[in-house]
Structure formats: C-alpha cells, structure tokens
Amino acid sequence: MYKCDLTKLSLSFNEFHDVKTDDMPEYGEFCLLELKDGRYTAGQWYPNSGDAETLAGHFGRGTADSVDVNEVAKWHLLKSYDLTECLEDENVRQINLGPEEDGVYSVKIGDFKPLKEGHLPESEQYCLLILTDGRLASGRWDQFPDGKKGLFIYASALASYSMDKVWAWTALSSDEVYEREAERLREKRHEEELNMNPVADPEKFKYGTDISVYYEKAMEKLRELYPWATVTQMKRRMPYVIVPRHGQYIFGMDCGTFRGEKEVREWTGGSTADEFVDFLCDYTKDTVKNYNPEEKFKFGMDIQIYLDKAYENVKKDYRWLAKNMLENYCQYSIKEVDGEWEFVKRYDENDDFSVYSVSSAEDFIKKLIRDYQDAALRANPVVDTYSAPLKPVDLNGWGLEKYAFSKLKSGDYKVNVTAGDRTAGASREFFITPYCFEAESYDEFLDRYLEIVPGGSFGLNKEDLIADEKLKTFLGFD
Fold first, then answer.
1. Maximum CA pair distance of the chain?
2. By Cβ atoms counted within 10 A, which residue in 163, 209, 301, 471 is the most buried?
3. Residue 220 — pLDDT band, cuts 50, 70, 90?
4. Cβ atoms within 10 Å of 267's Cβ, excluding its own
C-alpha cells in the first residue's frame, strides 16, 4: 500500500507531556503513554467528574481494561498526525512527531510489521497501529478462533479496528491482560500434552470410554417406566460426554463451544460407572417422560388435523383470517429427526426447519395458535393510530415509552406497548378481541380490555384510560 520500508521505519514521539493537573489531554483523546515503571501503552483519557483541580481519572483501552492516571508519567497525543505523505516516500527511515529539539523528551518506536497472515500479534497484545488512512491509533489484538484473523479493540463496548483498517502494527509493552492470556495459553498447551495419553479410572469407566454405552444402559432402566425411551430423547437435554482432563478421562456436561474451545462441566456426583448410569436416569427422566408419543401425537400423524384445530380456534376472534394468509409464514410438518418423530416448522425450499419442543398435542396447537395470530395481524394493515398520554411509571426498572392503539383495515383494534431504560427496551403487541367490544358500556369494555393488558404490568390503569376522551372516541365509544 505505502512505499516506505516498514522494517527500517521508526516513529519519534517528541512532544511528551508530564502528567499534571493543568496539562492533561481533552476528554476522550487517545494518547501514547509512558508509565512510571518505564513501560509503554496507550489509551483514551477519561477524567473523573468533580473537582477540576484534582488529578483523577483513567486511560481506557477497552471493556474492563484501563490504566489509572496515577500509574502514568507522561502522555503524547496520537490522533493529531496524518503520516500519509511520509509513508509514500520509499526512502523515509524516521518520522518525527513533534519538533526534534534539544531538551525535548523523545521516545522512538519501531519494529513495525504489516498486518497480514503470518505477521499477526500475539493474542491480547496491546499495539501501536498505523491505519490505512495514515493516522495513528492503538488497540488490543483480539484473535479469532481460527488463528488467522482478528481485530484490534480500542475502547469499551468492543469498539474496534478491523484488519482492513490497519496497515501496520508494533507491540507496546507487556501488561497484565496480555500476561494472563499468555499464562492461559501455556496452561492450555500443558493440558494438551497431559491429554495425549489419558488414563481411565477402572471403577468409574468399567464399561469403557464410549459415552453411548452409558446412555444405553440408562435407557434400558428408563424403559421400565417409559417403554418409548430412546437415547435421542435422553440427549434432548444437554448431553454428557467423556473427555480427557488433566491426563484422566472424566464424565462431563457438554456446554458447547466458546470462542473455539469446547466447554465441559465435570460430573462430580459419584465415583463409579453404575452411579453415573443412575445419574443419567434421573437427569433425563423428565425429558423422556414428556416424549410420550401417545400424548404428543394423540390426534394422529396427519399434520393437517393439528393445523385445522389451530385455525378454527384463531378464526373465532381474528375473523378476517383466511388460510392463504398463512402460506408465507406458517409451513409445518411431522418429520423424523435423529430417529424421533417431531413437529417442525419449515422455512424454505432447502428443507431448513426448527423443531417444536413440546410434550403434548395441545402444547403444539397452542404454539400454532400464537403463530397464526401473528400472521393474521401482519395481514391486516393499520389504517389509524392513537397514542395514549403517558405518565411516569416504574415497570420493574423500566419506564413506559409508548402506548399506541391501532385501528386495522378490518375495523378491529390492537395495542402496542413499549417500555425501556437508557440501555434496553421491549415491546408487546395485543389484539383487542371482539369480546371486549361486545360490552354494554365503555366502563365494561375497559374491564375486559384490562384482562388482556393488565395495568399493573403495562403501565396504564382504568382510571388513566377512562379519563382519556380521545381514546374513547378513537375506539368508537362516542
């Protein structure tokens, strides 16, 4: 990209400031830092609020990653330079950042490397960066699990520079974050060495080290109570595995993968193979119990029977609903998955699907009803909206942000309630059933409405709603 020879390039930082109350960077400025112990790092200045005459604050480097100002001896602004013109010069060897004069405190940093495969920082190394636009920056290398890519985190909330934004990097001084990661990697390598030839406790693993053998023994016991029990059903609950740890085999819960590494929680409930088999029986018992095919498929194996029951239920209140409204949203079938018959929802022609985890036909129909209700509302456009006046209200730490009634094309109504705080929020939508509008008075209507949208949970009570004459008119109670 640029023409200069990185292997010979150094940057001379010539305008360091001593840390003192009347000479600190502006809020949020990124700085190269010399620490009192002689190490170098960088960070974004965040002074503590309060007395401006008190030197207090920290330089942020990322989430839970900062340097207290009391650890810093000197600072130098990083964001004020554009090195583009210098980097285009193939003969450049040193770039002065600030005047190079007698008596000026200077620090030279070199050993820059191009950011590409084979030239990446070590995991969690904090680095000085030359960006592709010629600016200077800093960040901590967050390596992806594949070991070939990553990004530089430079501020909280995982603010980062992607690889395509960074031209070159050089590692700054080691710090506690990098050292913890280095120790973790050393321990990981040692663990891998120990696990190359693991041993098995003869009492705990008397049936071998194939986990399926233990599941099958537990399944045979479960079949005394639940004749339909299968290993597949048992593994619907987070499964157990046999893995090496510290050079010995263990039983453990497979908790999935985090950042490319398998997470296993060791079983410590006994010391023998038969105790583990008994544990598997207890652990999976409820899961198997809920897979009774006579309860799950009590209406048979024809999916249309279940769809019709749900449709008839929804049609009672969502009177505009037609079956063609469901075609784009609701495709269902009964499908064999890993040897077990399941209710599934299909998504596209590539046979992508999700399994409905239900124990009875009634539970599946309830899920269908919710899907059909959502599809019905999507097919009924809003023609008018009225937002009710809000009041200060505490909904488990959230404030009420929106309470909007909508009139639909069919003449029916729904309401949308939104609550939240400065960092999170959520919305709920409710259909106002015809039963509410069959009330003989507005007062009775509100009683029925509040059974659907309780005031204690969603902010507005009867006294709030009944006083709103505009709402009364909007809902047709003139």
1. 93
2. 471
3. very high
4. 18
